[in-house]
TrEMBL record:
Further comment: During catalysis, the active site Cys acts as a nucleophile attacking the alpha-carbonyl group of tRNA-bound glutamate with the formation of a thioester intermediate between enzyme and glutamate, and the concomitant release of tRNA(Glu). The thioester intermediate is finally reduced by direct hydride transfer from NADPH, to form the product GSA.
Region (Disordered): 410-443
One of the GO BP terms on file: protoporphyrinogen IX biosynthetic process from glutamate
Residues annotated for NADP(+) binding in this entry: 184-189
Domain Glutamyl-tRNA reductase N-terminal: 10-152
Membership in a protein family: Belongs to the glutamyl-tRNA reductase family.
Ranges where the Tetrapyrrole biosynthesis glutamyl-tRNA reductase dimerisation domain occurs: 311-410
Site location (Important for activity): 94
Protein name in the entry: Glutamyl-tRNA reductase
Record-level Gene Ontology MF annotations: glutamyl-tRNA reductase activity; NADP binding
Length: 443
């Protein structure tokens, strides 16, 4: 695939949207969205990520208009002010910021890096990432995310949404001797259970659809713990003082009936879609969601602000490096296509010319070499100026010129390149003689 893609992206996240709006923007799973985006006209690559804090989609297309059109109808039920659109460069920077934890509700949290990686693999599994510009952008984002955590203190005293939930609970109720119920045994449930294990609660129950997974988490805790299947959730919910829910199930897992007679109970809902019925129980039952964690997470953000500045500088440098890589690659792709097209024409004309000359009398090896050298020199000299122009176009972000060149010189543009009937290769673009590329500046 010839990589001349332009990226466009769209986001509904905690930065501008409510829990309800994020929920409305999400689909059944990210791969369904990726497949739908790939079906849009002009889209070559697609990626989507859905977490409790965000629903985002990115595509790469041949031109900016096609890319924008592909994500234009994202989250149609969400108000305009909650949706953020990104052009090519903004998408590149945003993906790096997300992976580094700068866009997280909990600044610098570690879970998002794994979520980006998982979402990339899921997209790749349905053909959404194919080694093109979007694939490269996600690889760079993951690289930046790893660097940010290895080289700065952005995740020092690591605070996850799970631990933020426990901190919020400690502010609102006395956890000494309390019974806690964790609903869900995924990553968020695991982090919540571990945070509770370090708190004053006296008992932790982990509930999950797959009992074995819940048992694995419970067995790793020092606090008195037990594991149950979701079928036994009602009895445990009625007995719990604190419920932290994070299953990601489509329907509510903690219902009004479960906590109707539970007495004083604090429910913290980390699910997306929501796990707890918003008005569950009576006045003695308090339900909190991700929006309520902002006070806790804002304090964590303040503690990590200096590290965030260092990560911002890192992203600036990596962003500039990535843009230069893309520009150089796009220019090289266009130049290679141009030389491949010229090479095909040269070889065809050489064969015809040699055949005519041979018909007029035998040619010596020196004569054949002279004719072939003349053809090489003509190609090199004729393409030297357009090569320079294409590199300048890439440096100036003139992708219209690049795209036009690809269409002119590569009839198979957007399809697998044709076999070149030549002993030469596309690398001849860097080895042309007599006025060829070796005489041209790199920029």
């Amino acid at each position: 695939m010839i990589d001349t893609g332009v990226i466009a992206g769209v986001s509904v996240s905690h930065a501008n949207a409510s829990v309800e709006e994020i929920e409305a923007a999400q689909t059944a799973d990210s791969t369904t969205l990726v497949s739908a985006l790939l079906a849009r006209e002009g889209v070559e690559e697609a990626f989507a990520i859905q977490t409790c804090n965000r629903a985002e989609a990115f595509v790469a297309a041949d031109d900016a208009a096609a890319a924008r059109a592909a994500v234009e109808e994202f989250a149609p039920e969400v108000r305009e002010g909650a949706i953020v659109h990104f052009d090519h460069e903004a998408s590149l920077r945003h993906l790096m910021r997300v992976a580094a934890g700068l866009e997280s509700l909990v600044l610098g949290e570690d879970q998002i890096l794994g979520q980006v990686s998982d979402a990339a693999e899921a997209a790749r599994g349905v053909g959404g990432l194919r080694g093109g510009v979007l694939d490269d952008a996600l690889s760079k984002a993951q690289h930046v995310g790893k660097r940010a955590r290895a080289e700065t203190a952005i995740n020092e005293g690591s605070l996850s949404l799970g631990s933020a939930a426990v901190e919020l609970a400690e502010r609102e109720t006395d956890l000494a001797g309390a019974s806690a119920l964790v609903v869900g045994a995924g990553e968020m449930g695991l982090l919540s259970a571990r945070a509770l294990d370090a708190s004053p609660v006296s008992r932790i129950v982990v509930a999950n659809r797959t009992l074995r997974t819940a048992e694995h988490i419970a067995s790793d805790l020092d606090t008195d713990s037990a594991a149950i299947n979701l079928d036994a959730l009602s009895a445990e919910a009625a007995a719990a003082d604190l419920i932290i829910a994070a299953t990601g199930a489509v329907d509510h897992t903690v219902t009004d009936e479960m906590v109707a007679g539970a007495g004083e109970t604090l429910c913290i809902d980390l699910g997306q879609p929501r796990d707890v019925v918003p008005d569950a129980g009576d006045e003695r039952v308090a339900v909190r969601d991700i929006d309520d964690l902002e006070t806790v997470t804002d304090e964590a953000r303040e503690r990590r602000s200096s590290a965030a500045e260092a990560v911002e500088e890192m992203i600036d440098a990596e962003f500039d490096r990535l843009l230069e890589e893309f520009k150089r690659k796009r220019a090289d792709d266009a130049v290679s296509a141009m030389y491949e097209s010229a090479e095909r024409t040269k070889q065809r004309e050489l064969r015809e010319a040699m055949a005519k000359l041979e018909a007029q009398g035998d040619l010596t090896d020196d004569q054949r070499e002279t004719v072939a050298g003349l053809a090489d020199a003509l190609v090199g000299q004729l393409l030297a100026a357009p090569t320079k122009s294409l590199r300048e176009a890439a440096a100036e972000d003139d992708w219209t010129t690049i795209h036009t060149a690809m269409q002119l010189f590569d009839p198979g543009f957007d399809s697998p390149p044709a076999e070149i009937d030549s002993a030469h290769s596309a690398d001849d673009a860097t080895d042309a003689t007599d006025g060829g590329l070796e005489h041209l500046p790199e920029d």
